[in-house]
Amino acid sequence: MSRHAGAWRRPAARSLLLHCRWLVPPLGSLALTALATGGAIPTGARITLLALMLSFAAVTAAGLVRWSRTRYRLTADAFLLHSGVFSRRRRSIPLHRVRNVDLTATALHRLLGLTVVRAGTTASNGEQDGITLDAVTLREAHRLRAALLAHADARADARPAELSRLDWRWLRYAPCTFWVFGGVGVAAGTAYRIFDGMGIELWRMPFVQQLFAAFGHRALWLTVPAALITVTALGSLGALALYAENWWGYRAAWTDADTLTVRRGLLTTRSVALERSRLYGALLREPLLLRAAGGASVTAVAGGLGDAEEAHARGALLPPAPRDEALRAVTGALRVPADRVDSVPLTPHPRAALRRRTVRGLLFEVLPVTVALLVLGALLSPAFLHAAWIHALVATAVTQLLARDAYKSLGHALDGRHLLVRAGTFSRDTLVLERSAISAWTFSTSPFTRRSGLVTLTAAVAAGKHAYHLRDLAADDAVTVAVTARAGIVEEFLEPAGRPGGPRSGE
């Protein structure tokens, strides 16, 4: 470490320019309002713009004070961060608790030559924590990352081993995601809120009324398919753009014997370094559309990545890609044989799990809509009565198919040091988890599952989503699975005389 390593430092002074991003919403809203109204700006829009500009000034002033009160220092064994204005915070984090380092830079950060450094840590009590430094120069960020990860055990000199890199042919999987339709809805809702906040009634605008009038004068069998095709096309374009922005320049590689680094992003770049000793598993995800196209994505189950939402974003190992590539990413990250995930036979769960999924689909999906259509038929038109029985037949058949697919996917297995769990139909997820990472078990039942003899077993892990479920196990097998998968947790709660029937009442 250099002779200046222990000196107190501040974030880069040009990080104050980052507050200019607060100008984007008011100026963008003003431009949209001017376009929508032909240059006339309503009084409500002017008041809103003034309030936003005052807020920008206040936020910028607060940022200046906060910058002047923020200092950090890196010593041989700890990272010290002093921050806060009214409430001062003094944090000292031992380097041996740092588990991963994430460098994130938005387009504005990159324009200014800055990045955000976030180090994920594990406290002595096992709880997840982290430190965030916004923002430092790229050179300083790389220096901090190297120093923060230098606490690990002596690493073998290993040449970088590439795990995966972006293949632009994978773009064909981008439309096989939620964002094809959900993205259009989010964009439309955002636009509506912007116009509504500026005092503009979107439905009263001339071009919107003309559009609805044009669709209303045409047959529904033409307008409805045309609307669906338009939404699908817009959603597909949005999904392609989002895929490219998130995964541009993607590369995952073992940069040394103990650090897996994932780099990606176009406008917002991200570089996440995961320590091998805190990489507890991987989750292979196959949403319904993506599975139909033969694709999958991979997320790491690693410690120190934050809450469930942060762990999903920061732990992404592979974008939607061919399933064979996803399997290689899983086995390469966990360093297990290539045939270990798919070739292991899973133990099926009881047939009662199939009945439960079927009944649940009928009660919550088929019955409510059918009843609503029957009521409308009795009150308004007999046409709704025909729609009711058609919906009941079609929805029942679809529910049966989905329930059987969900049950077919359901299973678990113990393979070496890993626990394998598979479940789901709308998103079939395969979890490969190190058994040593399990810190606790939870047995969950309901009046309905108890009558069926089923138990949901939940593994608590200080990583990823922090809780992973083995759903609808046979009650007689749940304790055996828990004891075999991770010994030393539930044995003390068992009945005496070694009866493996389950935990004592009240435990």
State the helicity in percent bands.
Answer: 40-55%
β-strand amount: 25-35%
Structural class: alpha+beta
Mean pLDDT: 82
What spatial order of strands do you see in the largest sheet?
Answer: 6-5-4-10-9-8-7
Query: Could you tell me how far the N terminus lies from the C terminus, measured between alpha carbons in angstroms?
Result: 52 Å
Total number of beta strands: 19
Tally of contiguous helical segments: 14
As for the number of domains, it is 4
Q: Which stretches are poorly predicted, pLDDT < 50 over at least 5 residues?
A: 124-128, 153-158, 497-502
**Large-scale geometry:** globular
Q: What kind of sheet is the major sheet?
A: 7 strands, antiparallel
Question: What's the gyration radius in Å?
Answer: 27 Å
How would you characterize this protein structure?
The strands form four sheets. Strands 6-5-4-10-9-8-7 form a seven-stranded antiparallel sheet, sandwiched between helices. The chain has a six-stranded antiparallel sheet with strand order 13-12-11-16-15-14. Helix 1 (24-37) packs antiparallel against helix 2 (43-68) and helix 5 (179-197) packs across helix 7 (220-247). It is α+β, with helices and mostly antiparallel strands and 507 residues long. Residues 124-128, 153-158 and 497-502 have low confidence and may be disordered. A hairpin with a 2-residue loop joins strand 8 and strand 9. It is 41% helix and 26% strand. The longest helix is centred in the middle third of the chain and has 28 residues, at 220-247. The chain is built from 14 helices and 19 strands. It has four domains: 13-151, PH-domain like (Roll), CATH 2.30.29; 173-247, no CATH class; 274-347 and 410-498, no CATH class; 352-408.
